[in-house]
Amino acid sequence: MDFSDHQAEVPLHVHRKGQLILALHGAVTCTTGNEIWIVPPNCGVWIPGGVPHSAHATVNARLNYLFVEPGAANLPEYNCTLSVSPMVRELIDRLARERADYLADSHAARLARVVLDELAQMPREQFNLPISRNPKIRAMAEALTSEPSDRSTLSNWAKRQAMSERSLARLLIRETGLTFGRWRQQLHLIVALRELASGESVQNVATELGYESVNAFITMFKKALGTTPAQYFKNRNAAMRSS
């Protein structure tokens, strides 16, 4: 699916089958229950069957959807982001051109079997933000997602939520497993990956996220992913070309 020709927003829905959303270009953000997931280029988010989810794609996104019968693959029963190898990406692209009703003994079926076996071996990435069903945490997530440059402190947020700072800190850890600082940094990483994948410059993304300098943003990015934004996307583009 090329999102320059389709709506970028896919409302909340559910499938009987499991679904892998694979980003070939651009990025997509998925929301499922208590988590927000980012799918940057050459990654896929796995959503098991029966899990309600919505999606928002960058306008330059090109995606492949792979639907998997329940029990047909040794894939997790929970949401996760998979780093997809060039070979598997090309096989999925090949399968996307097949009819959905291919025969069980056909060439397409054999390709599908290889894809599912390989997907079960793909490394998992931590491109998700726990948001919880708690209305206070969810309100914070929605506010920061729409205005990621908001640098309000935990004390500021506690006042807005009519809570003590200590109570909000405990609530965040209990509901998300993260401190406020780590939680907001993870949100910034998700927004950064989405915007950089859509073609935004590092300078603009750093400004959008409220960083005082580009270097401060690059330091955060490198600490989280082990490389600079430019090198991260250079490596992913090289992987795409090598296929």
TrEMBL record:
Pfam family, one: HTH_18
Keyword annotations of the record: Activator, DNA-binding, Repressor, Transcription, Transcription regulation
Listed transmembrane segments: none
Domain HTH araC/xylS-type intervals: 138-235
Protein name in UniProt: AraC family transcriptional regulator
InterPro entries linked to this entry: AraC-bd, Homeodomain-like_sf, HTH_AraC, RmlC-like_jellyroll, RmlC_Cupin_sf, Tscrpt_reg_AraC-type_HTH
Single GO MF descriptor: DNA-binding transcription factor activity
Organism listed in the record: Advenella kashmirensis (strain DSM 17095 / LMG 22695 / WT001)
CDD domains: cupin_NimR-like_N
Entry-linked PANTHER family: HTH-TYPE TRANSCRIPTIONAL REGULATOR NIMR
